[in-house]
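Quick one:
INPUT:
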């Protein structure tokens, strides 16, 4: 599994009129196709997609274009 670590991202919870951000957790940008085993089953992703772990410990896969629209990297 090839990856590059990103420390923390924020989730854009917004409407067209109001852009508010809330903490989402940690994310890893993957550089190769991958799969992640979770209690709910195995998630599949492609190179460039992100694995996100939210503040409650839930893991999900986010497609790279969706990630770029909803999240911002905090340095």
């Amino acid at each position: 599994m090839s990856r590059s670590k990103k420390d923390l991202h924020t989730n854009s919870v917004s409407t067209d009129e109001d852009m508010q951000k809330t903490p989402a957790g940690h994310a890893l940008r993957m550089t190769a196709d991958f799969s992640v085993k979770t209690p709910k089953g195995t998630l599949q992703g492609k190179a460039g997609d992100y694995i996100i772990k939210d503040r409650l410990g839930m893991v999900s896969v986010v497609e790279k274009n969706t990630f770029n629209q909803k999240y911002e990297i905090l340095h």
